[in-house]
Amino acid sequence: MAKQRTCDAPECPTIITKDDSYTWGGYSKPKNGDKGFMAVELNGKRTLKRIYSCSRPHYRLILSTLETEPEITVERGFSTFVDTWIVEVAPYRSADGLPVRTKVLDVAKAKSAFWVAEFGDAPFATIDGKMINKALRRLYEKKQLGADTRNVYRKILRNIFVSARNDKLVSIERFMELFGDGTSSSKGLVPKQRDRGAGKKCQLAFTKAQRLEMRGARTEANDDPTSIDSRNYLYAWAAFQIGINSGAREREIFALRWSDIQPGFDDPKFLNIERQVEETREDEQRVISDFTKAATSDHSAREPRVLNKPYMAEVFRTLKQFQREQQMRATVWNDNDLIFTDNDGGIVSVTPVIDCYRDEVRRLGIKWEQRTGTSKDGVAEYGIKSPRFHQTKNTYVTSCIRDLNIPEAQVIQWAGHADVDMTRHYYDSTGEMPEEIVNAMAQLDDISESKAS
User: Fold this and answer.
1) Which long-range contacts (CB under 8 A, 24 or more apart) does 136-143 make?
2) Which of 58, 330, 402, 404 has a CB 3.0–4.6 Å from the CB of 9, allowing a cystine?
3) What is the pTM of this model?
């Protein structure tokens, strides 16, 4: 069930959900067209606050009465609040209020239990940056946990403080003092953890030669092209091509519909990405659901341009032909307009398809040096590994910026990133610059020298 909240207007008992007007959110930066934000005065400084309102009249009422943020007067202990947070907040995604995967909830429970053991039922106002940083250091000194794992603990604590801030247990100034605003220029007293040597440049994207190799990946597992294994190898090959040429994440790829290819699969200029496939467990059985998803940082769909359009048209035609054959063999067919379908037209399971991708990458011998995800004595460790499927997104970002010289501002929008820092995180700076750019740089030098003379 989606998360719910009562309208903020005085004496209004109306229950509102994500689908209603002016509903969910917290303190944030303004976004174009978002009328749910209002400017308020906080300790002499102008900031923005999301209003939780069931109607426009109530929105105007709150706007006229809320001039300053109420003082933090309610005191609740940390562990008492976390007990409620685990039940009411952690099980749901902040973007749309839908349930998170079981594994995600298990991580939240385990990591929040660590912080409860550290702080007990101390008031939020007494928890400072020194206490949090000491706890994170102990995770390294006693358990030898790497920076990535320690950052998961930090993320869960930050999420708890976000909820406490929304419930007015922590002021926004206190929150910003501890965690900053999430950008590289505002790190706060509890910055993200970092292993020594973690800044080493490693290959992040597939090279042109490796992309061509993956075009020749298997599309059948055996002599029976109608088998489930053959279907999964075909889907793995096609999903890889879509990933490196659109920047779509794997679970977004398998939620794509034919109508999302614009203007059509024979002329794929851009994709409409607004959903992802989620896999959850109910009564020990895997349940696949197609959830509507906010695909970008501003909770809206994105439309990335498709690279290598002629080749991608061939990929989509191959998938269309395969789906026609599926329909002919099917006893019952549920037409959901999906590109990747199970044998009855339903949503396909993502995990076995990604397993086939891994098999092909290993078979083709595609490997490069990467972080192993561990550290030793506080120093980041590296090793030769096969690339993850998610690095198709790195490939798309790198191709747009380095090979096609597309402005970063445009790539940020296509990739669905919050800011340029995230886009640069995906950019592979280890490859050689295209010859055209090198030549242009040389010509610029010639111009400069002629003017100087």
Assistant:
1) 136/190, 136/193, 140/193, 140/378
2) 58
3) 0.71
Q: How many CA atoms lie within 13 A of 244 on its CB side?
A: 25
Q: Compute the distance between CA of residue 83 and CA of residue 8 in angstroms, rounded to an integer.
A: 24
pLDDT digits (tens, 9 = 90+) for 95-114: 667 788 788 899 999 999 99
- Residue indicated by tokens 């220029």: 185
Mean of per-residue pLDDT scores for the chain: 81
Is 25 within 8 Å of 51 (Cβ atoms)?
Answer: no
> Which string of DSSP letters, residue by residue, matches 278-303?
EEEEETTEEEEEEEE---STTSS-B-
257 C-beta neighbours (distance < 10 Å), count: 15
- Region at 25 (left for phi over 0; alpha for psi -120 to 50; beta for the rest): left
Domain boundaries, the chain: 5-65, 78-179, 198-453
Q: CATH classification of 198-453, choosing from 1.20.120.290, 2.40.128.10, 2.60.120.340, 1.10.443.10?
A: 1.10.443.10
Residue 39, strand partner residues: 48
Per-residue pLDDT of 288-334, as tens digits, reads 555 555 444 444 578 999 999 999 999 999 999 999 999 999 999 98
**Residue 132 in contact with residue 190, Cβ under 8 Å?**
yes
Q: How many CB atoms lie within 10 A of CB 230?
A: 19
Query: Can you tell me the distance from the alpha carbon of 269 to that of 176, in angstroms, rounded to the nearest whole number?
Result: 41
For 394, the token pair is 């790195």
Q: Where does the pLDDT of residue 25 fall: very low under 50, low under 70, confident under 90, or very high at 90 and above?
A: very low
